[in-house]
């Protein structure tokens, strides 16, 4: 773990499933929480009323983000490929432009994002991504390429970023901090399944884990068969225990 001190965090995309879990984890740690979500989604944050500040508005609006991240030591951003108006890259750019230069920035995405081209994907996975991208574009609902662009900008930035690459997700009780690898294709990740609550846990933990600065960990549930088979008992990252190597 690092020495970073975190007191106030902004959660961009707080009203979604991942966002709400992150709000919960952040409040449990005693952080002051500011959440950003679309105006129509504010009621979804009613369970946290009085315990967090909500800044309503589109997450790619620079003015909304500027107000929300003011004074924050950390920013947790849910990058989503919804719509066909560069929502993900606009959101990432607004955070990169307006967060404090030394703030910890943690972004979410999926395994399909590659930082260095060293990930190896199954044919089924690649096909699923291609079909989703094509269908999404056809119905003008999803823009996978823009999530790729968003991450490209984050990787190129000089900020203290972490891009957390989620496997397939499921609901359920927490199993603890997911294990991770630098590259998809590592056998430890083969199960390709993480509890959403633990994806959120990893994002929040990353705020204070300096070993994750400028890393793009691909995660998997610590009790998933592949993680167990490769010795997830020792910790959560490549240096944490036998078998968890990138
Ligand atoms: N789902 C998966 O299987 C999976 C797998 C791997 C990685 N991930 C990653 O996990 C993160 C969370 O994904 P999730 O699937 O679990 O979803 P989620 O947490 O429910 O988040 C969805 C987000 O998208 C927003 N949204 C929905 N429709 C929108 C629209 N038309 N325009 C703008 N924003 C819209 C939601 O805002 P509102 O609350 O305002 O609707 C919410 O903030 C993402 O970074 C995703 O890439 C997901």
TrEMBL record:
Pfam families the UniProt entry points to: NAD_binding_10
Signal peptide range in chain numbering: none
Gene Ontology MF: a single term: riboflavin reductase (NADPH) activity
Chain positions covered by the region annotation Disordered: 223-246
Stretches assigned to the NAD(P)-binding domain: 13-209
InterPro entries: NAD(P)-bd_dom, NAD(P)-bd_dom_sf, Polyketide_Oxido-like
Gly residues composition bias: residue spans: 231-240
Protein name according to UniProt: NAD(P)H-binding protein
